[in-house]
Amino acid sequence: MATADNPAAAPPTTVDPHVHKRRWYILAVLVVSLLVVVLDNSILNVAIKVIADPDEGLGASQSQLQWAINSYTLVFAGLLFTAGILGDRFGRKKLLLFGMVVFGVASLLSAMSQSPTQLIAARAVMGFGAAFVMPATLSIISNVFEPHERAKAIGIWSGAVGLAIAIGPITGGALLEHFWWGSVFLINVPIVIIGVAAMILIVPDSKDPRPGKLDPVGVALSIAGLVSLVYGIIKGGEDSWTNPEVLATIAVGLAILATFVWYEKRSDHPALDIRFFRERSFSAASAAIGLVFFALMGVTFFMAFYLQSVRGYTPLETGLFLLPLAIGQLLFAPRSAGLVRKFGVRAVTTVGMLVVTGTLSSFTLMGRDTPMWILCVVFFLQGIGMSLVMPPATNSVMASLPREKAGAGSAVTNTVRQVGGALGVAVLGSVLSSVYRDEIAGNGVPKGADESIEATLGAAAHAGPSGAGWVDPAKDAFIQAMHYSALGSALVGAIGAVVVFKWMPRKPVEGAPEQPEQHRETAKV
Questions:
Q1: Which of 25, 158, 211, 427 is least crowded, fewest Cβ atoms below 10 Å from its Cβ?
Q2: HEC profile of 149-199
Q3: What PROSITE patterns does the record tag this protein with (predicted)?
């Protein structure tokens, strides 16, 4: 019987034997490069409160914090397709190295930012570099692992996300205990240096013998549409959802995205091949990835303020409280492939989405005095739910495409993930702002200090005794706003459960048919 532990019994490999022998070392190096990309966002989750502080940080407003997150994710998502095609054309290893170097330089620029605007711009450059890293890691995995081992490798790859979620907040909290806020970005630089050195020595290069053409019009339309849509959503939470400017901006964004889809359907070299979505398992898996990240990123955004501003914990303690979420992913992500073989893709992903939905719903019951062990249990179950959705869904996307389209498939999964996350932060962050502003009204809080709990608490601290009466109302208002955001997250999770139950296949996709020998990709050192 073929097993990963018994290579001799495995089916014959079509990968170069020298590459095949060191495939697990290659996977380890790719995990390091993935870690640095995911680590940055997980570190940022515990640092946003400090960055919002006018004395210790940059005095960023809540909308500026949302843009610090979304400038990264929107550039990342908008360029993933082009980065995947460039990797297919020029070699994935080359583009991976390029992306890592850009990411490292941009991390240094982020650490040195002197204003929220500079940080937002530097984060956008980080997103540019990350766009060349993420798809390359997954497409290289698809080319050095045979189908019978690919699910396990992708499970480990997904588990690395859990590892980053674990060490990111703890590392960020420890850094903020001893250093200034910019250290959470500076920590990326040594990781990038180690990763680049290991890639040069170990990772093979590969390319598509029939790469696609670039699609600059499609890329421009996708970025313009997403930026306009997200800007309108964030502006709606900041001002009013009935503001004509807000409605017009959202409408323009939707119109541009509709034009993008129309253009891509008619292009002979689309950035996003709409034909991929004709495959049921591809569409359902992509939707599951996007919906679960919409919910998760929105919750992660407000949990940093809940733990630090409401409950009074330090950034390091906040990171430790997030540890169960990562442990759940680390323990179950590598085991998801076995569960899929036993119970089927549909059953496993549906259960995963239901678990995620249940944990998101539980945040609506949390208040100022909720025992912290309950929160830890909820985070652990959330990590388990994520691990039952992400690896099977990612593998379904990759397995439904031929191997030489690995770059495009990887780009789709990561674009959906990033767009879902960006919209989650924008939509749920805007709900948080709107509800908070309504709840805090009437408590004597001055205009401008009512946009977020950090603004209110900062104003209270500077007002002295006269501002002491604003603290408790601010915390109560935030709790109420958090409940509405959590409810929105849970509804999105429930939609995801319905999608995967109705459209995911019962059995795992075994892999797309191999292409003729003359068109098969080669991997070389």
A1: 25
A2: HHHHHHHHHHHHHHHHHHHHHHHHHHHHHHCCCCHHHHCHHHHHHHHHHHH
A3: MFS
